[in-house]
Amino acid sequence: MFLRTFGGSILVALAGLTLGLVYGGGTGLALAAILAVLEVSLSFDNAVVNATVLVRMSPFWQRIFLTVGVAVAVFGMRLLFPLLIVGITAKLGPVEAVRLALDKGNPDQKGTYGYLLHQAHPAIAAFGGMFLLMLFLDFVFEERDITWLSWLEKPLARVGKLDQLSVVIALGVLAASAYTFGNHAETASHHRISTVLISGVLGIATYLLVNGLGELFDQGSDDDDADLEHQLERNKTMHVVGKAAFFLFLYLEVLDASFSFDGVVGAFAITSDPIIIAIGLGIGAMFIRSLTVFLVKKGTLSEYVFLEHGALWAIGALAVILLVTIEYQVPEVVTGLIGVAFIGAALLSSIARNRRQSRNDASVALETAKV
């Protein structure tokens, strides 16, 4: 099973590292490997969250996620997206943007590819930060039977009964972020603030649109007479098809894009070569997708019930970090360690819960045997 799931990723890694060696020699090989590790460490929580959605998709759509989805993730987000951002920011045509990218250059030097991408970071961070914040808020405001941080999650679920509370809070956070972090001395304040506001609103709108379309076409949501517990179990076990599956796939792609923003921009702290960045981050993206499928096939989320909670809290932290990076630089290692800390704590809590349940079951069995 391991080779079936990760075999494609291993082949992509070997091909990518070979390409890095041919293109950039030993340095290119080393940088591609470092970027791949960076991408995996930053996006591990992404795999857990993706698995909670992918478990509802049929094997066909899971294969689409690993094939077409990877092409979108690697060539779209890791290669074409930075070129698009630089082209729009500098008002360049596609050919000029590619030429500028291949010239590489110092990110601290005005007019270079890395510098222009860095200048576009506030808009990127606002869009991605608000998309991930909406995902986190919808999670913590939803009432659920199993809670991890019960002292906090249960009160938030009660407050979350207020309609559209997630949108209201997200817009408030966006406004505060724009006027706090968007007011930078190097740029005209009103222009930077408006850029952050517009990008953030687009991030919220994208989340609402994609998430709403997925729910609209979800065939499993038509049973209004089913009780809540039955409905939740059905949503976890039934595979959606048709338009519902397509919009879930689209949702996963947008989610991956939001996660990849910090990795794409942060990669320029390691190298300004877009080809090496695409190779390294592409390898990492492939492994994250394989890990997602592995979690689904092994039933890991069902066995370790708090993993999803830890991943969503890590997403909340990442959303805040992205908003902070509108003005301040946050080391990628900090972002990665926060995600690992949340997921590690959730995993340990899940193991402890399983052991308690096993002891309780053994006690009940023993009492029954005595009777």
Walk me through this protein's architecture.
This protein is mainly alpha-helical and 371 residues long. It has one domain. It has helices at 2-54, 59-66, 68-90, 94-102, 113-119, 121-140, 150-159, 165-181, 189-216, 228-237, 242-266, 274-298, 300-303, 307-324, 332-370. The chain is globular and about 80 Å long. The N and C termini lie far apart (44 Å). The model is unreliable at 219-237 (pLDDT under 50).
SSE order: HHHHHHHHHHHHHHH
Number of helices: 15
* Main beta sheet strand tally, sense and closure: none
Percent helix range: over 70%
**Rg (C-alpha, Å):** 22 Å
Shape category: globular
Number of domains: 1
List low-pLDDT spans.
219-237
Number of strands: 0
**End-to-end CA span:** 44 Å
Provide the fold topology.
Blueprint: H1 2-54, H2 59-66, H3 68-90, H4 94-102, H5 113-119, H6 121-140, H7 150-159, H8 165-181, H9 189-216, H10 228-237, H11 242-266, H12 274-298, H13 300-303, H14 307-324, H15 332-370
Helix pairs in contact: 1-11, 1-12, 1-14, 1-15, 3-4, 3-5, 3-11, 3-12, 6-8, 6-9, 6-11, 6-14, 8-9, 9-11, 14-15
Summarize the structure.
With 371 residues, this protein is an all-alpha fold.
